[in-house]
What does this fold into?
Amino acid sequence: MRMMNSKTSSQSSNMSNNTNDTIPAAVAAQDLMKKVVARSGELTILSGLDLQIKQGESAAIVGTSGSGKSTLLGLLAGLDQPTSGQIHLVGQRIDELDEDDRAKLRGQHVGFVFQSFQLLANLTALENAMLPLELAGRKDACERAKELLERVGLGERLDHYPKQLSGGEQQRVAIARAFASEPQILFADEPTGSLDEETGEKIIELLFQVNRENDTTLVLVTHDMALARRCDRVLRLHNGLLKNITDSDREHAP
Ligand SMILES: Nc1ncnc2c1ncn2[C@@H]1O[C@H](COP(=O)(O)OP(=O)(O)O)[C@@H](O)[C@H]1O
Ligand SMILES: [Mg+2]
It folds into this structure.
């Protein structure tokens, strides 16, 4: 895989809470709060959490089902707006941006693998993986998407539509699509959730290979302890707050 373009230093220069650290934060949240109105009344999903993930770092977010992991990932990636608090992505404050500006920033810096894959049903595997590259005007869209699909083991499935693919194959198309544009930060919501152990292991290898080669920041939600253990840090989301968990705690993480 090609090395990622060098990053501009200005992208991360205005992280005020990062003064003692030479590695800039790729993702940061301060006092992040998310409340939603559910049928049963107001629900606090995130209750003022703080987080800093450095450029090139890999972090796993674990927690029980319904603890707010997907909500947190969506907020950090600029897919959703917090109720209050600040979010910085590649040194830019995103909670104050409108949807168009957040979309632009996502297009430039972020790859996202959704828990539900979110492939377009009327596009083939290849067309799905090519789409973000075409939107970015990349002339090598087809070639690059093919290369990534081959790397996730789908070289023989390029012309298949999502409904002609298994859950695990769809997940791999979603991963290829997220990697194709060489994002500086990759968010992935349970990226090995639909994969058997062997395929999961291959995808984990790919994630960390890209992390090493391109200095990609990885923020992963997972129940897969084989994956969490490979990350530089494991954070547990509980009662709307994040806690760093240590090696001995990791054995008991869900
Ligand atoms: N827009 C929403 N309206 C009402 N409830 C929501 C909304 N989004 C999430 N929730 C609830 O918030 C909780 C956290 O959801 P989620 O972030 O998907 O958890 P996780 O990914 O950890 O399983 C769940 O109980 C979910 O039902
Ligand atoms: Mg979830």
In short: The chain is about 35% helix and 25% strand.
